[in-house]
Fold these 4 entries.
Entry 1:
Amino acid sequence: MPLFDVYPLYDVTPVSGKDVKVYDDKGTEYLDLYGGHAVISIGHAHPNYVEAITNQVNSLGFYSNAVQNPLQKELASKLEALSECKDYELFLCNSGAEANENALKLASFKTGKKRVVAFENGFHGRTSAAVAATDNKNIIAPINAQQAVTILPLNDVEAVKQELEKGDVCAVIVEFIQGVGGLDQGTTAFFEDIDALCKANNTMLIADEIQCGYGRSGKFFAFQYYNVTPDIISMAKGMGNGFPIGGILIHPDIEAKYGMLGTTFGGNHLACAAGLAVLNTIEEERLIENTNDLSMYFVEKAKTIPQIKNIKGKGLMIGLEFDFEVGDLRKKLIYDNHIFTGGASNKKLLRILPPLTIKKEHVDQFFKALTKVLEDIETPVVD
Ligand SMILES: Cc1ncc(COP(=O)(O)O)c(C=O)c1O
């Protein structure tokens, strides 16, 4: 049976990984500056992670949400301690899109309203309301288009004010650092103003931290660079280091009712074991500190490359913008230099999303290869 052909694939077959390296079926070593799309937070096959999942599956891999699961409570208290998001409540699910679906649904339950405000170039997932709030017409099917969503330009406070004052907006959903769109960020004034506007208009502010959360930005959550209090925070990607897990943090102003949200697999024992191993490792290995140190080192090196016209993002969520499309550059990095990097809908942007365990020697390896590739493709340097 053929696979439903929806992914354009690189011709590489990774079969194993260790920390920031992956190995293909021919034994070739690759440097992973993509982290399987910002998913690998504590490094491939981290011993804590392997041990936690192995022990858990040997005792109990799964039981439903109809019984007590102390691992969920343990995960919630560790997450509260590390994120410093005091008083929020945790609901666990399985992916980023599902986290945003639940976030939007809760916002609608809480406010009794149904229109969503989202932003240009934003990405929130591929399902129902999450895809409708995503600024990409190509992935919105007619069945999704029935959702009431208004997409506004980032940084246009006045436009947000006008929409919220109409009184029918249940949620404003925003990435504090855009991922798929290409690492654009709103201004401090914009974020703080939309937070205030949400509070004034009975609208829930949803921080989509699916890509920029879990330490990747250099703080536990990217919204923590600003003086804002989201009503709901959605998480996935780095949360499980590859094990499918997602979740939302919910402000206590939103009251839980039995049956309001639910899922078969969400918060299962194995997912919690993976999630706990991630949090324990972030803490033990001081990975947020490493993210900040290595980010600084990376950016300093990037500033010395004249072909890089703009450096975007925060922490280990870095965009290098060139004045040409980077498709060929990425191919040369992967096939000739064995380095994985990411792209974005901004075709001139190279996205760097390594495991948070990366070291200076890996950054050096990347810049050595990048310099060589840039010489090879003889890009004219435009001043
Ligand atoms: C910011 C953001 N939100 C939501 C999603 C959707 O997550 P998932 O692919 O796990 O459904 C993504 C995935 O790239 C994302 O980057």
Note: The chain has two domains: 14-46+286-376, 47-284.
Entry 2:
Amino acid sequence: MALISSILQHAKSHSSSKISTYIQRRLFSNDVRKENIVIVGAGIAGLASALSLQRFGIRSLVLEQAESLRTEGSSITLSKNGWKALDAIGVGDELRSQFLDLQGVVIKSDDGKELNSFGFKDEDKSQEVRVVERRVLLETLASKLPPNAISFSSKLSNIETSENGTNTLLQLQDGTRLSAEVVIACDGVWSPTAKWMGFRQPKYAGHIAFRGLGYFPEGQPYEPKVNYTYGRGLRTAFVPASKTKVYWFVLCNSSSPGPRITDPSILRQQAKELVRDWPVADMLNLINLTPDDTLTRNPLYDRWLWPVISPPPFSGRTVLAGDAWHPMTPNMGQGACCALEDSIVLTEKLAEAMKSKHISVEDAFKAYGSERWKRVFPLTVMANRIGALLQSENTLICSVRNNLLVPKLKPRALTKHTNYEFEQAKRDGH
Ligand SMILES: Cc1cc2nc3c(=O)[nH]c(=O)nc-3n(C[C@H](O)[C@H](O)[C@H](O)COP(=O)(O)OP(=O)(O)OC[C@H]3O[C@@H](n4cnc5c(N)ncnc54)[C@H](O)[C@@H]3O)c2cc1C
């Protein structure tokens, strides 16, 4: 109250530019908690960044809007590049022990005919593909951070740079104010930080994903393979995740994202409706065996980071990582893998800058932006285009896809983008 009345008092007797300077000064001086590094969002990118900074002895504070970790929801596929990042931050083996090493893929058309099948390691033994429960991934990352490293119920509501550009003021919904030397914004696809930096909102891709995790208490019956079925405007997959759980998804087309639906009985009914006449009977069974809390429905969005038009992923000492910067459709299973890669590259460069007198934080962010843009922009575009082909409703396109393209697919086509080498590792010669 005292702050507001003092600002109002000041407003009566000064010009508007002086008033704004005065407000900034007051905001940055009183009742503001000072922090060194603040990470916004305790999702995959946020937790991996905090853990990666910890490797360099750098402490950070993670702000998460939710009351606890987002443990609901289904699973994601992590490929070789994701595992490499998880190894770098020391949690790869703990996760590997819980999830199956998938051997390959079988692709069928919606008349039940097998179009192609191959092993992921047929051409390259180093390939690694596993489905990981999001809950387990987040809990594992969080468990390696010190107590109180994550501040829950801390929703970022406003962000501004200090007058001299060295600090960032973060205003939380509950009124808390923090002044941070560095902000790593991992606040997801609808990132308020990206909006503040001038990024346009993500674009709806025209498809909706229903997902779940079928549970077989006595053990699931499938081989460790990805089972895709491609139809017209509809595609499904089921993939064993562990000894008792099988991940599945149904992807359909829709002209609009529609209302947000979280009621599991509606989600189950809608997913079942989509595959009622599907040749793969396993899909209906899996949907029936799926616990309520793993059923989700997500309209798919992405944002293409056009050169010149798109802003850089940083402003002053605030930087974006993961979906906050480059939301991509999941058609190549790369969103989380790239979020993990971001965390490693960004934190390595930041740690170097913090220890060096010659590299500034801004230099580190610039180097991160240019190294990562080359990686994430093509993947975002490719994922979108693959989605358009796989969700096509055109009879001719579906026929060419199923009879000419898919039968010729080689393992390399599904895995070569996962052979990512961190530039730092290349420079260090390993
Ligand atoms: C259907 C579907 C399937 C997918 N499958 C795969 C796959 O197989 N493989 C793969 O690699 N990727 C996959 N992805 C992508 C993957 O889920 C995302 O890329 C990944 O979750 C991004 O992580 P993130 O940390 O950037 O964002 P998120 O995981 O969204 O985390 C953002 C966090 O920020 C918090 N937050 C947001 N706003 C605020 C605020 N104002 N204040 C404080 N906290 C805030 C949120 O609560 C959340 O915890 C898939 C995505 C979808 C939709």
Note: The pocket of flavin-adenine dinucleotide is lined by residues 40-46, 63-66, 70, 76-77, 155-156, 186-188, 192, 209, 211, 298, 322-324, 330, 333-337, 339 (CB under 6 Å).
Entry 3:
Amino acid sequence: MIQLERDIKLDIIAGKYKCIEAYKIPKDVDKWLNCPNCYLKPLVWEFNNDRSTGCGCGKNEYDHFSIWAESIMSHVGRNAGSALEYDIYELRNNWNHWVETGEELCPRKKLLEEGKW
Ligand SMILES: [Zn+2]
């Protein structure tokens, strides 16, 4: 686990990731599958109003591939202020599902169409 984090940090320093520094190594990074295209473990951006992955796929740090999940503020907004049903593993599940099947469960476009973000 520590070795894994060290390897990822080296990949970050080497510039292999196409995302800004706000994307962090997930706490349970050993449970995230490697990207089938760039072979990196994803980094994650999980703040109040945004929830997505960043890996080595994409043009640059502002135009890169992401797997998405609904943010906590969006969830709370739709559920009368309650985070009870919020799935803290949704982004990881969406990522691993995409790695295994190629299917995106929550593409950005679908989230927006459903009034989520
Ligand atoms: Zn990738």
Note: The chain has a mean pLDDT of 95.
Entry 4:
Amino acid sequence: MGKQDGKRAKLLRDLVRHAETMIQAGVSRTTRTCSTPSCGCHVDPSRRHGPHMYLTFRSAAGKSASVYVAPEHVAEALAAKGAWDRFWDAAVAVAAGNREGRRRRWQRGRRARRAR
Ligand SMILES: [Zn+2]
């Protein structure tokens, strides 16, 4: 197996591995006021509650949507978003390799036709 084949096999393994846990989303952190009118959060911005984390994304229907992430799940959510980023990097690298492979094959075909 050539060096390029080994690199490609690793990228394909990475795609599958990251697909297991990836979440395609943006991360948003907001603070908010609560429903208790006497709470300090209503008069002092530094006493607002949070920050609360949300994963933001577009639904299949194209609408903006978000998922609240409780503090104990923040690390897992960030890892899932990171898995998407690495999945994307691996997909771009595989696609570039596919493009180069086709380009070489198509050029060989043109040279062979010209030689006839
Ligand atoms: Zn409050």
Note: The helical segments are 3-19, 74-115.
